[in-house]
Structure formats: C-alpha cells, structure tokens
Amino acid sequence: TKSLRETMKEVIPPKQEQLKKLKVEHGQTVVGDVKVDNIIGGMRGLKAMLWEASVLDPIEGIRFHGLSIPDCQKVLPAAPAGKEMIPESMLWLLLTGQVPTAEQTKELSRELAEKGDLPKFVEDLVDSFPRSLHPMTQLGMGVAALNHDSQFQAAYEKGIKKSEYWTHTLEDSINLIARLPALAARIYRNVYKPGTELAGVQKDLDLVGNYSNMLGYGHNETLTEYLRLYIALHGDHEGGNASAHTAHLVGSTLSDPYLSYSAALFALAGPLHGLANQEVLRWQLAMQKELGDKISQEDIKAYLWKTLNSGQVVPGYGHGVLRNPDPRFIALQEFCDSRSDLKSSPIIDLVNKTFQVAPNVLKEHGKTKNPYPNVDATSGCVLYHYGLTEFKYYTVIFGVSRALGCLTQLVWARALGLPLERPKSLSMDALTKIIKQ
Ligand code: NMX
Ligand code: MLT
C-alpha cells in the first residue's frame, strides 16, 4: 500500500496543473462583487481565499473534499477496537483528498506515536508556567517553542528551491500533530492535577488513544471514542474561520508551521470563536444553578431573554456562514443519543432542552442571521458528564484538532506556491472617495 508521502507526490502535480489552468484561462473572470458591507462587515461572504480541503455550505454544513460528515463517518477508518472515525484518517483525507485504508491509517497512527514525545526543553518550559495561566496561552506558547526543531526553517536557511517547500512543511506538520497530545496533556496535568504522574506516549496506540490516556481517561472507552469523533470533526471548517485564516496568513509569510499554527491558536482562544465551547458550559451551568433540577421550557426561555437583554450573546448559537443547525452539533448529539448513560445525563438533557427553545427566542430577538446551534453548543457536555469538568481546558481539545486542517492547507499553499497574503485596505475617507466617483 502507498505511504502518505508517496500519495502526496501523486496528488500534487494534477492540482498544480489545475491552478495553472485557472490562472491562465480564468485569471480575469469575475466571481463576485465587493460591497461596502463586505469591507466594514468582517469580510463576511467575500469569496477571497483558496482552501483545498473543505468547503462550507450555509445549509448543508461542511464537506471535506466533497464528503459530508455522515459520509466520513461511513468511510473513514476507526481505531482498531473503535467505531468512530479517527483524526489520522481525517488528516489523510484532508491532505490527499483520498480515503485511507485501515492499514494506511494504522501506519499513520504508528508514525505519530513514534514522533509523539516532547523535547525536554519544551516540557521544562510548560512546567514553568503558573497554573493560573490560561491553558490556551500555554498551548500557543508550547507550539511556538516547538519551532526550535522546524525542518522547514532549517532547510530555508540553507537555501532550498520553492518546489521543495511542501516536503519540509509536511514533515513539520506531521511532527507537530504528533506532539500535540503530549503537550496538551501536560498542560492539563500541570494545571488541574499537579504532582500526579503523566503517562508516556504508547507506540501501539492511536493519536487520541494516547491523548485520552495521558489525560487520565484511557480507561473510559466511550469518552475516548467521543474524543476521536470530536477531534476528527473539528479538524477543518474551510479557510475563512478565524484560526484557519490566521494560520494561512502567517504561513503565507513563509513562517514555519509551528509559528503559523501557534498564531492560529490565539485566534481560536477568542470567545467568538473556539473559546465559545468553554463559555457554553459556563452559561449552561449558571442556568442550571439558577433554575434548579426541574427546568421547564418557559424557564429556559426566560433565562435566554435575560442573557440577551443584558447585552450578551447566547454562546454556542449563531455562525458567520451556517444558516442551519451545524451538522457537527448533530453528529455529537447522535453520539449521545446512542448511549444510554449520556442520554440520561442532566447536562446533555439541558443542552437538548435549550436547543428546543433557543432558535425561536433568537428569531424573536431578531439580530442573529443564524438562530441555530453551532458545534460549541454541545461539544463540552460529554466531557463534563464523564468528569472532565475543567471547562477552561475545552478549547485546548479544539486546538489539538484544528491543526489537521490548518497544517494541511499550509502544505498545499507551499505545494501550489501561493503568494504572500496582502489584501488592500481603505480608510473611510478613501472608501467615500471611491463611492463618489
Ligand atoms: N446571541 C445573541 N446575539 C447574537 C448571536 C447570539 N448567539 N449571534 C449573533 N448575534 C448578534 C451579533 O452580535 C450581531 O449583533 P450586532 O448587530 O449588535 O453587532 C448580530 O446578531 C448579527 O450577527 P451575525 O451576522 O448573525 O453573526 P456574525 O457572523 O457577526 O458572528 C458569531 C458569528 C458566531 C461570532 C456570533 O453568532 C456569536 O457571537 N455567537 C455566539 C458565540 C459563539 O457561539 N461562537 C462560536 C462560533 C463557532 N466556533 O466554533 O468558532
Ligand atoms: C469553526 O469551526 O471554525 C467555527 O465554526 C467558526 C467558523 O467556521 O467561522
């Protein structure tokens, strides 16, 4: 069977041809207008980036190289004893556009485990952080420090041809993805379980098998399977989301994959983006505390209005592109529905009840263009149910996942020779001048 590198060598030339053709034959074809609203409205709706691995449809949700989430759940290989697709098979799909075999997936798991240990100086660095430093800050700093061993940076310093950029970027990307579980688990141990032993990376486990084990949940197969699904699902969400866009922008300067992804993590750490999953749980727990055990739909409705009337957003609802319930939310809900202990969990029940009420309240409120839940509305609840209750940590898990998509695009950006990103900005006066012309 073909290795990942062999497969990449095969799939890159046709894509390079496709890009060349697009440039030569359609370089001047118009695909949309730029309105003043786009410029002052966070570029919402502007078609302005190339991103190979996934495309987001407002109604249907994400497709990874054309495959929907249910398609991926059907065809992407699981862990040897599991059922859920795993990040390794998603990574293979994102990188190559092909569905890997079970053997190829296993080989990638083995490679990641082989490369999974942290350099000693990064362990020491992370151990030196105060426990009060937010886990996302620690993750971003740890990832940036890993650039000490960047093959891309070392090769660039020596002087390499442009056509070789992608191979070094791929090696860095694999090394970074391999090391994320040990880094993220070390942060968890240091912040929440100081003084306890941290398991090592086991060479025969898949990426999330190791991550779960290092977090101290290796015995909980349901949670481990949930994490596999969660991390595979959150891997990519086309290019315009804040973390992916940041990785792309920073990477376009030929900054190495570690620095590019570190920057992306600090975008993910904002409450309108990845931090929303910590905010959801905080908000749902506050609701539970205030309303008690027997919560009616009317109670939830009143609580939602209280949140909105105090000028806050309802975390986990709304989206920059989606105009329907997020299929990632649906997939995680289905995971819960298929397990009796999760089905009867009070926190998961509360998320479900909120889902029954919130869209109508948000419609009545009349501001958000999308009154439906995004993935963050539910992603933390299963973790909470199984005792991983430290919700300031949740975005770190998202951060372990989003590396799949961001790093895939970096490899493709280098393979396709995409240029430095540098859009044109305008002042309000300059904009007014154009309008008057
Ligand atoms: N609750 C209350 N108001 C909202 C919400 C919400 N959940 N979502 C949007 N709005 C408001 C928004 O603040 C804006 O108000 P204003 O005109 O006063 O500035 C108005 O509705 C229009 O916003 P939209 O165009 O619908 O949303 P936009 O594309 O600007 O932002 C989000 C998208 C996701 C930032 C926004 O919906 C939000 O803040 N949601 C809550 C936070 C969240 O769940 N983020 C997670 C996103 C997913 N992720 O994983 O990253
Ligand atoms: C994501 O997964 O990045 C979020 O849903 C936000 C987005 O797509 O804009």
UniProtKB/TrEMBL annotation:
Organism: Panaeolus cyanescens
BP term (GO), one: citrate metabolic process
Gene Ontology molecular functions: acyltransferase activity, acyl groups converted into alkyl on transfer
Active-site residues annotated for this sequence: 273, 319, 376
Similarity-based family: Belongs to the citrate synthase family.
Cellular component terms (Gene Ontology): mitochondrial matrix
Entries under SUPFAM superfamilies matching the protein: Citrate synthase
UniProtKB keywords: Mitochondrion, Transferase, Transit peptide
Protein known as: Citrate synthase
A Pfam family it matches: Citrate_synt
Subcellular location: Mitochondrion
